[in-house]
Amino acid sequence: MKRALTLAMLCSGLAACGSEDHQDLRAWMEQSTQGLKGQVKPLPEIKPSIIVAYETGSLIDPFSAAKIEPERKKGGGGGGVGPDLDRRKEPLEQYPLDSLAMVGVLQQGKVAYALIKADTTLHRVRSGNYMGQNFGVITAIADDGITLKEIVQDADGEWVERTSTLQLLEQETNK
Q1: What architecture is domain 88-167?
Q2: pLDDT over 80 at 2, yes or no
């Protein structure tokens, strides 16, 4: 019974919302929109595109890598300079040269050895050993550093030799 009464009150309340109470609002809306006219600008004229025929017989494919790669010189370039890619890599070749530190020199007979610190490990190297990521071979070991001959590619993609040095890491002494 209570539900039926509540439902009847709700329906009468909703019916009152749609009555003539909002006549002033409707009159204002009609008055405000009297002079308005909607306008849509016409679409711009579509210009036809120019069709260009592409003769593929004698031209370079525009999507090929040859279009952006520099031309390689004949004969391998660099006068036969190039790394030996079939050679087994040595442990110090996995580190960049600037992450290695020379911490000392040992002399055994006539052979000079350098002590190289890589991460926390100490390595003993001599002339002819490889180190660094640019195919660097040790050419000389002195008391103050190591001289290396590295093989790198230049801007044209040719292999060239360059000389690098790794200086002895001097530790500060407490006085």
Answers
A1: Roll (2.30)
A2: no
